[in-house]
Design a protein that fits this description.
Largest sheet: 3 strands, mixed
Number of helices: 6
Shape: globular
Structural class: mainly alpha
Radius of gyration: 16 Å
Number of strands: 3
Strand content: 5-15%
Length: 165
């Protein structure tokens, strides 16, 4: 299996650990300032990004055409099903990682089409996921939720603090 897909699967599996250990109330709690977004909102957004990749038509991916299923934001079971669907798609992907795909996105000034490879798009999706995990970490802290994963929300290139003891 390709290294990019393996890395992506490793990152996404952290979502399952969260979903297995959160209640629906914790998943949907949007009480944390300044953005008042929930953990579920971020999980749904992450999975929607991947879903867009797998809904490619004729070598085109539209990242603005997300499904935005609100049930994913408030139901751990629904979110877990969506995650399983995305992981299954990654495990059975038939595209060539080096093939060019035209990606539609809105970078703030309207939609634009950008040529990527599937590998570059998946690498972006992986980094995007880690970025949202970092935001989820802030929500965890504010809600007093602890997870046992020192790497959750950190990019693999983030320098690790070295103990001097």
């Amino acid at each position: 299996m390709n290294l990019i897909i393996q890395s992506t699967l490793k990152t996404l599996r952290k979502s399952q650990i969260l979903l297995d250990n959160l209640s629906n109330a914790q998943l949907s709690d949007a009480s944390v300032s300044p953005y008042y977004s929930s953990i579920g909102c971020h999980i749904r957004h992450i999975l929607d990004f991947y879903d867009c990749i797998f809904n490619a038509e004729e070598g085109k991916v539209d990242l603005t055409a997300r499904s935005r299923n609100k049930a994913v934001e408030c139901d751990c079971g629904c979110a877990a099903d969506y995650l399983t669907h995305i992981i299954d798609k990654l495990n059975t992907a038939t595209f060539n990682i080096d093939d060019v795909v035209l990606v539609t996105d809105d970078l703030g000034l309207g939609k634009t089409e950008i040529p990527y490879t599937y590998g570059a798009l998946l690498a972006q999706a992986n980094s995007h996921t880690i970025h949202h995990y970092a935001i989820i970490n802030y929500i965890f802290d504010s809600l007093g939720i602890e997870i046992n994963d020192d790497e959750f929300g950190y990019n693999p290139t983030t320098p690790k603090e070295i103990s001097t003891e």
